[in-house]
Amino acid sequence: MGGLLSYFKSLFGSREMRILILGLDGAGKTTILYRQVSPEILVGEVVTTIPTIGFNVEQVTYKNLKFQVWDLGGQTSIRPYWRCYYSNTDAVIYVVDSADRDRIGISKQELVSMLEEEELRGAVLVVLANKQDLSGAMSVAEVHQALGLDALRARTFQIFKTSATKGEGLDTAMEWLANALTNKK
């Protein structure tokens, strides 16, 4: 085990990797962040959050990798400030409310605009099709299509089916992200 730890330290040094959690307001970003910070939260226990005005930042350790995770508010008035946080970002976790069919087009616009930024050119992208536990939620394939993810040719990305309140799919997504970041170095 010590050998594996030293392998990761040589790969990444002591630098924490910077991850942004972005998405429209109400998508589940803060719930996802605190599920990762406090994995001991029981499945089925509701994490109570309030709308994020500004940001939350936490250190998360996953598989011996240290992440500094920035959860940025998703309200219309806050989204223009996302770009202030793009510098030195290793990965973006983009959270979509799969049950919010009315705003999937806005979610796509924000994602496309964000991915056009030079500072995020090399960032790994994880899309979480969240709230899959709600009736009427779009499938992962529908979210993939609605966001136009087929157009992403030169970016490492993956989409995952999740339910933040139930804790479903988050471990799989974090596992993929850790591997993608490890392979990128």
UniProtKB/TrEMBL annotation:
CDD domains found in the cross-reference section: Arl1
Key words of the record: GTP-binding, Lipoprotein, Magnesium, Metal-binding, Myristate, Nucleotide-binding
Binding site for GTP: G23, L24, D25, G26, A27, G28, K29, T30, G74, N130, K131, Q132, D133
Chain ranges passing through the membrane: none
GO BP annotations, alphabetical order: establishment of localization in cell; vesicle-mediated transport
Recorded GO MF terms: GTP binding; GTPase activity; metal ion binding
Coiled-coil features, chain-numbered ranges: none
Residues the entry annotates as binding Mg(2+): T30, T52
Family named by the database record: Belongs to the small GTPase superfamily. Arf family.
Protein name, entry field: ADP-ribosylation factor-like protein 1
